[in-house]
Inverse folding.
DNA sequence: TTTATATCGGACAAAATTCTCTTAATATAA
DNA sequence: TTATATTAAGAGAATTTTGTCCGATATAAA
């Protein structure tokens, strides 16, 4: 469903969100340890998220990554997926046809427009604050 | 969502289903042309489907691929996906955790168990006969 | 029985994705 | 101002996925 990059990206963002709730800035190393991901590869993904303005990065001692507290409730998982994997999952033909729409649909089009729409809405209505809450309460985990 | 192999596999199977409806056996070359896929690679995927008993293959002159007419209505797209991509899409943690369940869920678990279940059911309730009908009527297409 | 025509199977090649290493840039603090 | 800690960026290596080639095998027909 999501690329590995995207999974790392989501987990990293959620971890940063959790810490940002308490005004804690976190380092690359800490993030990678928290989500069990390769450090240097995670760095690349954080760069993408940083350029997409989903997270903020600061260089130098005591640097690291954080998210403006005020934006936690305004950022969705959908934005993360979009930044890393693009809109393919939601918009492209599930069978890979170049053009596939109601006029000239692939055999799975009608079934899947709904699934794609629902998937998209599910991700778009989520927000980092809610998810960070659950993490704080220990209701959910980021690695295993 | 699906691997490229799986997309080819679904399209190939649907094409074979359509032709099998009229008792026509189709060659690898014809299939690849009909779904716009690389010939040799398509052959590999057809081998998988053949071993999974989803399609029948016959060697030699006038050989090719077909599906028992009586099985068209009993075969689902889900079976094809399962044979090629496995059950990962339906069963694995969407964030890639090794174990993720109601007891120790990832932050997206609760949202996604439903999506995965629905996706699975949607694919499991489909059948090749219905899909082949639509193809015959020109209501849907396999390449573009 | 020979020949032509298919798929099968294994080895290999190319491309995309995932991951690493090294150096640069930048900010903090002594 | 210098040393140190941190992310940024680029090159490239490893792995996985996708795709090709060719000989083996099976089958039908001449």
């Amino acid at each position: 469903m999501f690329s590995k990059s995207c999974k790392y990206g989501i987990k990293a963002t959620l971890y940063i969100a959790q810490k940002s709730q308490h005004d804690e800035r976190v380092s690359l190393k800490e993030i990678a340890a928290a989500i069990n991901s390769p450090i240097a590869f995670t760095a690349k993904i954080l760069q993408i998220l940083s350029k997409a303005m989903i997270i903020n990065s600061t260089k130098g001692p005591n640097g690291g990554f954080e998210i403006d507290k005020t934006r936690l409730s305004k950022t969705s998982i959908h934005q993360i997926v979009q930044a890393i994997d693009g809109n393919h999952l939601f918009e492209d033909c599930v069978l890979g046809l170049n053009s596939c729409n109601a006029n000239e649909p692939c055999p799975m089009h009608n079934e899947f427009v709904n699934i794609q729409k629902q998937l998209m809405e599910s991700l778009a209505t989520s927000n980092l604050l809610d998810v960070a809450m659950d993490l704080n309460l220990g209701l959910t985990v980021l690695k295993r």
Observations:
- Chain B has one domain: 4-136.
- The beta strands of chain B are 56-58, 64-66.
- The helical segments of chain B are 4-20, 28-35, 39-51, 77-85, 88-91, 109-125, 128-136.
